[in-house]
Amino acid sequence: xxxxxxxxxxxxxxxxxxxxxxxxxxxxxxxxxxxxxxxxxxxxxxxxxxxxxxxxxxxxxxxxxxxxxxxxxxxxxxxxxxxxxxxxxxxxxxxxxxxxxxxxxxxxxxxxxxxxxxxxxxxxxxxxxxxxxxxxxxxxxxxxxxxxxxxxxxxxxxxxxxxxxxxxxxxxxxxxxxxxxxxxxxxxxxxxxxxxxxxxxxxxxxxxxxxxxxxxxxxxxxxxxxxxxxxxxxxxxxxxxxxxxxxxxxxxxxxxxxxxxxxxxxxxxxxxxxxxxxxxxxxxx
Length: 285
Description:
Layout: H1 3-21, E1 34-37, E2 39-43, E3 49-52, E4 54-58, E5 68-78, E6 86-87, E7 89-92, E8 112-113, E9 120-121, E10 127-135, E11 145-152, E12 158-159, E13 162-164, E14 176-178, E15 181-187, H2 195-198, H3 202-205, H4 210-220, H5 224-228, H6 239-255
Parallel strand pairs: 1-12, 4-15
Antiparallel strand pairs: 1-5, 2-3, 5-10, 6-9, 7-11, 8-10, 11-15, 13-14
Protein name: DUF4843 domain-containing protein
């Protein structure tokens, strides 16, 4: 084999390898209908694709008006498409889950909402959607909360336990994906940015805590980027202006009987130069 033909052969084999990487879910009996979790999280210009069975989300940098968020886990079908709806059996893996189900009356501190009874692969389709609404509650400010969903066999489907992962960088380090489970990781954990000290924020906003920090960011529209880079909205020269604006807002809320509370449950207070007067607070009924 001459040098030119050799490199043509190598390129062809590499192309075949990449193509085979795209999705390899193993062998199955032709009569079986199997389901598995899979969400695409990468698509390259060369046609390579990557998949995951995990969603990681943080409410940090989202305004307080965003009280919940919806994510979908995709259930893929390995088998024949049918002309009728077929129910999916999805349960919560209680051993790996830290969240509880939300209910406005019985469990307002719960972390998720979903309707297990409506999950299906519809007629003419080769996939189903498992939608979950996650609540922005107090728990995720302290820890990363987890919801793990598990597919189980029923009268319509068996479950594909594992399949080969697509690795878009190399065909030698491909891993195996668990097709039976989908994991959601939800959090809202704040950490004090280094520039809080650089701009002497304690002198204007008071001592840092996550509740105060989140309120300030929401009021001014600051993001973590603004606190990370000197080119952001937060600068030492503008701190007196920000402190006056914050004092004005806290005072307005106090005067209207809707004071802002700090992490310890007390009214949010600023340093003496920008002190808020709470002496005449009459709480709204």
